[in-house]
Amino acid sequence: MIHGTHNAVDDTRNNDILVYINGDFYKREEAKISVFDSGYLVGDGIWEALRLHQGVLVFLEDHLERLWTAAATVGMQFPFSKNELKLTVEKVLKKNDMHDDVHVRIMITRGIKKTPSQDPRLTISGPNIVIVPEYKKASSETKEKGITLFTSTIRRGSPDYLDPKLNCHSKLHEVQALIQAIEAGADEALMLDVNGFISTCNATNFFMIKNGEVWTSTGEYCMNGITRAKVIEVCKIHDIPCHQKNVSLFDVYGADEAFVTGTFGGLTPVVKIDGRQIGNGTFGSLTRTLSAHYHQLIKTYISNVKG
Amino acid sequence: MIHGTHNAVDDTRNNDILVYINGDFYKREEAKISVFDSGYLVGDGIWEALRLHQGVLVFLEDHLERLWTAAATVGMQFPFSKNELKLTVEKVLKKNDMHDDVHVRIMITRGIKKTPSQDPRLTISGPNIVIVPEYKKASSETKEKGITLFTSTIRRGSPDYLDPKLNCHSKLHEVQALIQAIEAGADEALMLDVNGFISTCNATNFFMIKNGEVWTSTGEYCMNGITRAKVIEVCKIHDIPCHQKNVSLFDVYGADEAFVTGTFGGLTPVVKIDGRQIGNGTFGSLTRTLSAHYHQLIKTYISNVKG
Amino acid sequence: MIHGTHNAVDDTRNNDILVYINGDFYKREEAKISVFDSGYLVGDGIWEALRLHQGVLVFLEDHLERLWTAAATVGMQFPFSKNELKLTVEKVLKKNDMHDDVHVRIMITRGIKKTPSQDPRLTISGPNIVIVPEYKKASSETKEKGITLFTSTIRRGSPDYLDPKLNCHSKLHEVQALIQAIEAGADEALMLDVNGFISTCNATNFFMIKNGEVWTSTGEYCMNGITRAKVIEVCKIHDIPCHQKNVSLFDVYGADEAFVTGTFGGLTPVVKIDGRQIGNGTFGSLTRTLSAHYHQLIKTYISNVKG
Amino acid sequence: MIHGTHNAVDDTRNNDILVYINGDFYKREEAKISVFDSGYLVGDGIWEALRLHQGVLVFLEDHLERLWTAAATVGMQFPFSKNELKLTVEKVLKKNDMHDDVHVRIMITRGIKKTPSQDPRLTISGPNIVIVPEYKKASSETKEKGITLFTSTIRRGSPDYLDPKLNCHSKLHEVQALIQAIEAGADEALMLDVNGFISTCNATNFFMIKNGEVWTSTGEYCMNGITRAKVIEVCKIHDIPCHQKNVSLFDVYGADEAFVTGTFGGLTPVVKIDGRQIGNGTFGSLTRTLSAHYHQLIKTYISNVKG
Amino acid sequence: MIHGTHNAVDDTRNNDILVYINGDFYKREEAKISVFDSGYLVGDGIWEALRLHQGVLVFLEDHLERLWTAAATVGMQFPFSKNELKLTVEKVLKKNDMHDDVHVRIMITRGIKKTPSQDPRLTISGPNIVIVPEYKKASSETKEKGITLFTSTIRRGSPDYLDPKLNCHSKLHEVQALIQAIEAGADEALMLDVNGFISTCNATNFFMIKNGEVWTSTGEYCMNGITRAKVIEVCKIHDIPCHQKNVSLFDVYGADEAFVTGTFGGLTPVVKIDGRQIGNGTFGSLTRTLSAHYHQLIKTYISNVKG
Amino acid sequence: MIHGTHNAVDDTRNNDILVYINGDFYKREEAKISVFDSGYLVGDGIWEALRLHQGVLVFLEDHLERLWTAAATVGMQFPFSKNELKLTVEKVLKKNDMHDDVHVRIMITRGIKKTPSQDPRLTISGPNIVIVPEYKKASSETKEKGITLFTSTIRRGSPDYLDPKLNCHSKLHEVQALIQAIEAGADEALMLDVNGFISTCNATNFFMIKNGEVWTSTGEYCMNGITRAKVIEVCKIHDIPCHQKNVSLFDVYGADEAFVTGTFGGLTPVVKIDGRQIGNGTFGSLTRTLSAHYHQLIKTYISNVKG
C-alpha cells in the first residue's frame, strides 16, 4: 500500500539505520552488494519480511518455515540453522537499538558468480545474506480512508513457470502490474490467475466479504501470505465462515466489503475497484472486526513469547 | 553453455578488469551496488550483452534497439541517448585497454528505492548503470564435442505474465530450469512453451535441421536472441530454407542436426537431448555451414564498421 | 427443457397477457422496444426469471440479490430499490390478474443509445425495464419420461471473457450449443468448461448421482442457478452427501442417475447422454426424492410468506 | 472511437432519419422491435455496418459475404439473396435521400420467439431485419490528435466459446472491456487474446509499426474487420512489409507508430497506450501514408462502381 | 471413412491373406501376438499404412521416414534398416501374390514384457513386427455422395501429452471422438485442437475451400498425413493458393467446399457438418480438381519407380 | 515401482502360469491375441489389476465398480455381470492353484476388427477378455530404501482428450514420461497436470506430508487409484488431516515426507525428487504409520470376507 509506505519511510530515524551484510554492519548509503551477486544479476534469491512489535518478532516460526521452503524450491542450502538466523536478526535489532514498529527484510541470494550468468555451478561464494531493519508504521489515516485497486492485464503465472507462492528477487511482473494500476489512477493492482479468477494484489493478498462470509482466492496462484493465513485462522477461531475458492470479478464488483492483507499493513480496506465503489465505500464493519481479531492474535503471540 | 563459459572465465586477465558503475570505475571485488537497488531487490532492471571482435562492438545497433524496447516495456526512461551509451561502453573498453574477444554486459536498473518495495514511485535516484567487460572466448573443443540438453518441466511463461522476450533481472525461472537439467546430467535446459511446443534453451536459442531445412520456434515465447536473428538472416542470404514454427519433441527427437545460438558462443552443436542421440551425435555438416556463414556475417560487419 | 416449454407456451391464456415496458402495459404483439436499445443492439442487459406459486414470488430475495450483483458486474446503476422493483412486479401480476403457475421474466437493459454502438457513454436514457409474465407449467409427462442431452463442442467461457455466471442478454454461445445438441438429436446441450470438465446445460444446471452421492460442477463456469442452490440446500438439510466438484464425462457416463435444474422446471431427469443410457434410463429414485424435497422447500417458503 | 462518434451523432440531420424494419419505415423514436425478438432476448442476431461514399456502398460485396458467413455460423437461413438485400439497402437510402457520409447498420435477428427462450425451435417468425442509416463523418480533429488506449483485463474468447470474428448481437464482453478502459481514462480498450497476445480493440482493429514494418494480430481472435483487410491489401499493393503475427505488449510499448481501423473511422492514430506515449505521440508518417492509400482504394472502388 | 471401408473389407479375397509376424506367415484367424506384447498391454507401438498401386508402394520413402521419426519419438531402435523393412514388405506382398489396390499396415511394438507393465526396462524381446496386407479400394459411390462429419467434444491433445502427430497404438481418444460422431448420426468426427480451432478428423485430415483458396489446419495438432502433404504439394505445383492456418467453425460452416484426406481414400468430399450443408452439398468442383491432381501425382510416382 | 517389480517378476513360479483368454487357458508363451484385436491395434480396451492376499481378492467390489465405469466411458457393454466376472477370476486362480501374493490383471478389449481400424462398427466379435495371474510381492528392501522420482516434461492430459482417470490400453504417454525419468536417473516419473500442479506418478499415485498433514492432488487429472482412495480413507478413520488439493513443486521440494501408492506395492517411500532429498531421505515415520494402517485395512477386509 502506497500511502502507508510513504508515511512509513518518512520516519527520519531510518536515515541512521545499520544494514547487515554477511556479518558486518553498514550505514544505509554504504550498504552495498557485489554486482556479481546472483540476486542482482538474475533475481536469484529469496527473502522474508518480519515485524517487530513490542520487542517481539511476530509469527517468527511461520516466516522461517516459509523461508526454508523457498530455499528448497530454488535448490539453495543454508549454512546456518533457523535458530542461528533468528539470533542474527536479534543481533541486528540490538545493534540498531530497535524495539517496536520495525520492519525487517531478510534477503538471501545464491551468492557471487564467477561471471554474470544464470548457471548455479558458477557460484563462487556461499549465499549472501542482507538484513534491512526499518521503522515503519501503517498510517491510521490510510486505513480509515481505504485504498483503490485496478485489475491489471498482467496475470499470476502458473507454478510450472515461476511458482507464484515464492518470495523471491524475480518480481518484475508484479512491478509491471503495479505500473499499469498506477497509470489507471489506483493505489495497487488486483491480479487474476491464468484462468481469469481473482488471485491477489501485486504486493498484498485480497479478501472480499459477501453476506457475512469471507472469501479469498484458493491460494494456488497467489503470494503465500502469512497475514492471509492468520486472517483465515481468526475466522476459524471466531466461527466466521471463510472460503478459499475461485472468485471472479462478477463476485468482486458485487462485494459488500473488501480488504487487502500484508505483514506491514495488516488489514487495509479497499473502497474502489476498477472505478466502481465497493459496498458503501468505507472501512466495512466486518473488515474492522477481522482487523481487531488479527491484532488480538498478535497480542496473544507477544504475550506468549514474553511469557 | 557451461563448458565454454568455464574456459572463458578462467582467463586470468579478468581478475584485473575495471567495472563501470554510474560513471566510476571499480576493481572486480569492489564493484558493488546498493542493496536498495531495484534490480537487486525485485529483479527490476534490464540488460544487454555485447561482443567486441577486433575492436568492433558487433551488431551494436541491434543490441541498443533491443535495450530501448525493453526500457519501454518496463516503463523506464533513460537520461541518455543511444549514442551516449555507445560512447560510455567505448570508454569502458578503453579504460580496460580491451580490443578483442571481449564480452560486455550492460545492466540498467530502475534505481535506488527509499525502502525495499516493488513500487516504482519510491525510486529516489535515476537508473543505475553497470557495465562489466570480460575476456571470454568460446572453447573450440566444446564446439567440436557439442553439448547435451534435457527438456525441463519448467515452461516459458506467457507474455501476459512476464514477457519471455525480455532481457531482465528477473530470471529465476530460467535458473530453475537449468538446475533441473543439471540434475538430469545435461549441460543446458530445453524449455517448452505453454502449449507444449519447443521454445528455447534457458540461456540460448534452439534450432534443429530436418531434411536440409532449418527449423526454430516461432519466437513468441523465447528469448529475443540477436544471434538467432542473424542465423535466420544468413539462411535467407544463402537460400537455405528456414522456418520459424511450432516444433514439438516429435520433431526434435527425429532431427538430423541441432544447435543452440547465443551472443557468446555463436552456434554450438547439440548432440543429445533427453538422453537420445541427435542425428549421428556429432557437429552436423549444415550446422557447420551455418556457423561459417554467421562468422562471415560478423567479419563483414567488422569491415563495414572499420570502413 | 424443450418439451416442457412447448407445453407451457401452448397455454392459450398467454395470448392475452399484458407486458410491462417502462411503466406502461402493452398487448403481446404491441410489446416493443427501441431498436436503439442497448440490449437489442449489443446484448447489453441483464435479466431474471421468477416463479409465482399460489400467489407468492418464490425465492424472490435470492433473485433480486442476483440481479443487483449482475448490475454491479456490468456497471449499471438502477434508479429504483429492490423493494420498488418487487412492487412493480406485483403490479404487473395484478394487472394481469395472475395467481399461480406464472413465469415472470424481468429484463433490464442499459438504455437507449444515441446511435448503434457499444459505448456506454452514448446511452441517452435510463435503463429500460421490460417484464413479461406468462402462464407456464412443466408437463408431468416430460418429467416422467426424462430428457436427453448431447455434449456440445461449444464450451463455457472463462470469467475473464464474459462471466459465465451472468444472466445477460448476450447468450448466443448458448444458442449455438443448443443448436448442435438438436442436430445430434438431443433435447438440450451439456456443456464443458475450458478445462474439459462438465459445467452445466445450455439453459439449466446439471447434477448426477453416484453411489448415493449428489455431484454437480464447482459452479465456477456455470449458470448461477437458484434452483441449483436450493437442491444443494435440501441435500444439506436432509443429510444427503452433495459435492460441488470437477466431474468429467468419465464420471457422467457411469452415473447412476442424472437430472437438470431450472427455475421453470425444477428437477427434470436425464435419461440419455451422447446416446448412452444413464442408469436404468428412468426417473431415478434419489432424483425423485430430491424433487420432493425441493417442492417441500417451496411450500415452506410460500407458507412463511403467507404467514 | 469515441470522439469521432460523438461528433458524428451530433449531426442534426439524424433526428429525422427513417429506420427500416421488416419492410416498413419508422421515425427514429418509433423504430421498435418486439420484446420477443431473439436479438433483444438473448443477443441472437448478426449485423453489418456499411459506408456510403459519394452514392456508393463501399466494399459492399465483402460486407455481404461476411454477413452470409455469419448466418451460416449461427445456423440462420435468409429468405432473400445478397442482391435482394442490396436492393433493400438502396431503397432505404433513397427513402432517406442520403448520398454521402452515411453509415448503414443492417441487423438481422433469428426472429420472434413464442416465449423468452434460447431455443431456436420456438422461433415463430422469419428473421427480423432492421436497417438504420445515419449521417456520420469522422472528425478530422480526432484523427490529428489521435486516441488513447488502455489494455483491458477482459480477453477475447476462444472460437469454441463464441467465435470472436462474429459480428453479432452478443457483445457485452466488449462493452465490459470498454468500461474498464474508460475508468482508466482512455478512449478505447486494447484487448489481449487467451494466450496473452494483442488481438484487437473493443470496436476497432489494432495495428502497430516497427522499423518500417506494419504488424497486426494473426486475426484468429479479433474482429474480422474489412478495413483491416483493406489495410493489409494496400500494404501488398505498395510493397510495404505487413505481418499478421502474435505481437505482445513488449512489442507494442516499443512501437514507432500505432493506429486502429474501422469501417466508420478508417485509420485513426493511437498516441498513448496504458499511459505510455507511442513513438513521438503524434499522427505517424507511415500511418498517414497508409491512410492515404486506403482512401485511394475507396476512390478507386467508387469510380469502378460508377464506371 | 466408414462406407468406403465397409466396401473395402467386403473383398472376399481378404479371407485368405497371410499375415506377417516376426518373420513368419499366418492365416488371418491364426495371426496372433503375445498378450505380453507392449502394444497390446499399453498401446506402446507405432504403425504405418501404405498403398500398393500397380505393383508400386506409393510414396514409400515418406512413410518410412515418418515411421523412423515415430520410433525416435517413443525411444525405440529398430534392428533393421529402412531398406530391409522395404524388402520385408515386398516379401509379404509376393507371398500373398498381391499387385494392386492393396493396403499394407506395418505395426511395430516395443516387444514382449516380462510382466504387464509400462516399464520399457522390462521388455525381454526385440520389437515385434506385424504386417497386414489387405485388398481395399475406396468405393466411387461414397466419393460421389460424400460423407458427413460431426464436431466432437473430444479434443486433440497437446504435444506435451501424447504428440498428436504420432501414428501409434494408443488411439482410444480418437475412437471416443468417432463414437460421439456416430451417436450424432455422422460418418466421422471433426476434432478441434486445445485452442478451439479445427484440427483434423479422427482418422483423416480435413480441408476446406473458400473463394478459390484451400485451407487446412496448421498441422500442429493433427495427424501427420502424407496425403495431406501431397494435397498441399499439388496446390503448390498448380498455383492453387493453399494456407495452413488456424480455421474456426465460423470459417468451416461458411465453406464453399470441404473434403478429407487419407492414404486409403485419397480425397473424399464432405457434404454436411453438424447437420449444416457445406456449399451446395455435392462433390465440389475444386475438390474434384485437386483429387485429379493427386491421382496424377500417384501416376507420376509409379511411372518414375517403374522407370 | 521398478525395483519391487523386478524382484516380483523374478519369481520362477511365474514361468508356469496359465493365462485365461476368452474361456481357455494357455501357457505363458502360448498366450496370444489376434492382431486384429482392438486393444492391440489402437489401444481400445480397459483393464484392472487385483491383489490376492491369503486367498482373498482384496477390495474386489471397488475394482469391479471402476471397471464397469470405464466400460461406460468407452461405450463398451459387457455380456457378463460383475458376479460372473468374479467367478471367472476365481476359476483362473483355482486353475493355477494360487492362494497368496498374487497379482491378477484383467484386460477387456472391444473385440476383433474386420480390418485394422478405429471404427467400433467394424468390430466382429464380442469383447476379448484376458486374465493374467502372477506371483508378485513387493520387496521389503525397496520399501526401506525408498525410490527416486524425476518430474517429467510429459503432462497429464485433460478429460476432454483421454480421461486421465481411465485404466485403458492407450498408455503410451505414461511410457514416454517414464522413459524421460529413467534417462534422468530416477525410478519413476512425477507428472504435472495441464495447469502445472503435481498430479501423479506414471504408474502410481503421489502423496506428500507437511507438518503432520497428508497432501495429494485433487484427483482430477490422476489415475483413479484404489490404494490412493484407501490411504485417504485410513486418514479419515485415524483422524490424520488429509487434503486433496493443488500442490506445486514449491510444496513438494519442501515436503517432510513423500510416498507413492499402488495396488502392487501399497505405500512406498520417495526419498529424492529431481535430485533433491525429501525430508531426511528415509522411510518417513508418518508414511510408516499410514502403511501400517493400510495393511490393517487389508487384514480387516480379509477377515470380513472370510467371515
Question: What does this protein structure show overall?
Answer:
- The structure is a homohexamer of 307-residue chains.
- By secondary structure, chain A is α+β, with helices and mostly antiparallel strands.
- Chain A has 9 helices and 16 strands.
- Chain A has helices at 2-9, 38-42, 60-74, 82-95, 140-145, 172-183, 226-237, 249-253, 285-306, and strands at 18-21, 24-27, 32-34, 45-53, 56-57, 102-109, 128-135, 147-151, 188-192, 198-201, 205-210, 213-216, 242-244, 257-262, 266-273, 276-277.
- In chain A, strand 4 (45-53) and strand 5 (56-57) form a beta hairpin.
- Chains in contact: A-B, A-C, A-D, A-F, B-D, B-E, B-F, C-D, C-E, C-F, D-E, E-F.
- The interface between C and D is large, with 68 and 68 residues.
- Strand 3 of chain E pairs antiparallel with strand 3 (32-34) of chain F, so a sheet runs across the interface.
